[in-house]
Amino acid sequence: MADILQYSADLDPDFISIEIFKELFLIDEEKLQEPIKRLKALSIMNLTYQNRQAGLQLHRLMQFITK
After folding, report:
1. Which of 27, 38, 46, 62 could form a disulfide with 57 if both were Cys (CB 3.0 to 4.6 A apart)?
2. Alpha-helix residue ranges (DSSP H) falling in 1-67
3. What is the pTM of this model?
């Protein structure tokens, strides 16, 4: 979960493709679901879609803090 936040700090907070994390951590989308659920529960990230692609939207304050 911390790795997702760390890498997200330097990306566009409005849409971060889940594909980035799949490639970065060499895991499938199913294994990403648990940390994403935790981040959503804490209102740090939301799941969003852009052009039929799943992605994450990072709270801007959290992005500022993690930079």
Report:
1. 46
2. 2-8, 18-25, 29-41, 60-66
3. 0.83
